[in-house]
Design brief:
By secondary structure, the chain is an alpha+beta fold. It is built from 6 helices and 5 strands, in the order E-E-H-E-E-H-E-H-H-H-H. It has a 5-stranded mixed sheet with strand order 2-1-5-3-4, sandwiched between helices. Helix 3 packs across helix 6 and helix 4 packs parallel to helix 6.
Length: 150
């Protein structure tokens, strides 16, 4: 069946089964490989995208539930990596292996859109993505830096 989504500002129609996870539609059907597969159960957050502005684990969302929504992937966060979270990520040297990076950045961007000046406790509560390398202190510092506009 055909489903129409607005992905990164463009209307896209895909012909897939309705229960196909949005993650696989993004990666396999649309070629947007910045969204990563991690656990497939919505636990790790590597597949985090924004659905209508809300951080969402795309591996657990069937494409039929995403039809008609605005989907934003890491590819569209900023065309030149100038989004405050991306700038802070580099300044704080957050990236290591890369497994969690796109999902973590998308979760952080959604948090800052909803809560522009989060406390450390709010960051801890909102950022539930897993990082294999354990860069959580740097993630928190990067979010605080982005919130401060530095």
């Amino acid at each position: 069946m055909a489903y129409t989504l607005t992905v990164n500002g463009r209307r896209r129609t895909v012909d897939v089964d309705g229960d196909t996870p949005l993650l696989w539609v993004l990666r396999d059907e649309l070629g947007l490989t910045g969204t990563k597969f991690g656990c497939g159960a919505g636990l790790c957050g590597a597949c985090t995208v924004h659905l209508d502005g809300t951080a969402t684990r795309s591996c657990t969302v069937p494409v039929e539930a995403a039809a008609g929504t605005a989907v934003t992937t890491i590819e569209a966060l900023s065309p030149d990596r100038s989004h405050p979270v991306q700038v802070a990520w580099l300044a704080e040297q957050v990236p290591q292996c890369g497994y969690c990076q796109s999902g973590m950045i998308m979760a952080a961007a959604a948090l800052l859109k909803e809560t522009p000046k989060p406390t450390e406790a709010e960051i801890d509560a909102a950022i539930t993505n897993l990082c294999r390398c354990g860069t959580y202190p740097r993630v928190k510092q990067a979010i605080l830096r982005a919130a401060a506009g530095a």
